[in-house]
Design a protein that fits this description.
The protein has 335 residues and is an alpha/beta fold. The protein has helices at 14-25, 37-46, 87-94, 119-126, 143-147, 164-171, 184-206, 211-232, 242-253, 258-267, 272-277, 284-298, 304-314, 321-326; strands at 6-10, 29-33, 62-65, 77-80, 104-106, 111-112, 117-118, 134-138, 152-157, 176-181. The strands form two sheets. An eight-stranded mixed beta sheet has the order 3-2-1-4-5-8-9-10, with helices on both faces.
Length: 335
């Protein structure tokens, strides 16, 4: 595959901007599409996304824009870093501009709340025959760590193994390592469902629970999402890798974690609506928690931890109930 050394990224939040910086470091021209005009103005004026990634200087080879021009779609790869609940809307606005030969990379994590579908299913529904030209990327990677060039490892997954070596070249450098997988569903579910468990871990921190309790909670939470994911068709081994336990560890313990911090503030007694309105960034686990809860009911899977997080977020359940649900006999064998 002959590359133009040009990549387009849709979505200029903290993660999209961090990815743009990493790819630009590798010598690519990056067209960065932002929905927010103030983001484009900030990057043009200061070489910095002061809205979502303040303090990080960006390369002049990153070209920001608000316009969905034809030029954006004439790139080696089209990379999507759009919050999950807005992906469908965005793809529908772009579908006529996306060539049938375009190679697409998803960097977002989550499950569409209304349909309970993972991200790949949304792409496939809107862009038929996308399976052989679709890649997803996931793993333990905070935006600031990547933007600062700190050592980071992630997983690239595609059903088309021929795409993976080419995609690796776009992302990889001495500080950004990629591994590969063919389990697209497992990689996406791992990156999505761990956000829900991370909210619960944050709640435990907020109510001053013990580290022992938190470790047990995360382990049992991983077991619940592993069983659900296997039911949906994912491979068990995927959850032992970077996009599974690796991402779960980072999100449940990391101070930069939006999902953990959402739970932390809930545990400290803050109202959920107030927390969500106080930030421009999205804690995807809030939306995914409802979808994952509905999936456990659909497939009749006992998931006391997932259920307790859902009820805290959507049914005003007391956050302290999360410990009680951890101690329930869920009937699920140990792993």
């Amino acid at each position: 595959m002959k590359l133009k050394k040009v990549v387009t990224i849709f979505g200029a939040g903290s993660w999209g901007t961090a990815i743009a910086k990493n790819i630009a470091t590798n010598g690519y021209k990056v067209r960065l599409w932002a929905k927010e005009k103030e983001v484009v103005e900030s990057i043009i004026s200061y070489n910095e996304n002061r809205i979502f990634l303040p303090g990080i200087k960006l390369s002049s080879s990153i070209i920001p824009t608000n316009l969905l021009s034809d030029e954006l779609f004439d790139s080696d790869f089209l990379i999507f870093s759009i919050p999950t609940q807005f992906i469908r809307e965005s793809l529908l606005s772009m579908e006529k501009l996306i060539s049938k030969d375009s190679i697409l990379i998803n960097t977002s994590k989550g499950i569409e709340q209304k349909t309970m579908k993972p991200i790949f299913s949304i792409f496939k529904e809107i862009l038929p025959r996308v399976s052989r030209r679709y890649i997803t990327i996931s793993g333990p990677s905070f935006a600031y760590d990547v933007a600062k060039g700190l050592p980071t490892s992630v997983t690239l997954a595609s059903a088309n193994g021929l795409l993976l070596p080419v995609a690796m070249k776009i992302f990889e450098n001495q500080n950004f390592k990629t591994y590969t997988s063919k389990d697209v569903l497992g990689v996406e579910l791992g990156g999505s469902l761990k956000n829900v468990i991370a909210i619960g871990a944050g709640i435990l921190d907020g109510i001053n629970s013990s580290e022992s309790t938190k470790a047990a909670f995360i382990t049992r939470g991983l077991n619940e999402i592993r069983i659900l994911s296997k039911t949906l068709g994912a491979k068990n081994i995927t959850f032992m890798g970077l996009s599974g336990i690796g991402d779960l560890m980072l999100t449940a313990y990391g101070e930069q974690s939006r999902n953990r911090n959402l739970g932390l503030n809930i545990g400290r007694g803050k109202k959920i609506k107030t927390i969500l309105q106080s930030t421009k960034t999205v804690a995807e686990g809030f939306y995914t928690s409802k979808a994952i809860y509905e999936l456990t009911k659909k497939y009749k899977i006992q998931s006391p931890i997932i259920e307790s997080i859902y009820k805290i977020l959507y049914k005003s359940s007391n956050p302290k109930n999360i410990v009680k649900n951890l101690l329930k006999n869920d009937g699920i064998a140990d792993i």
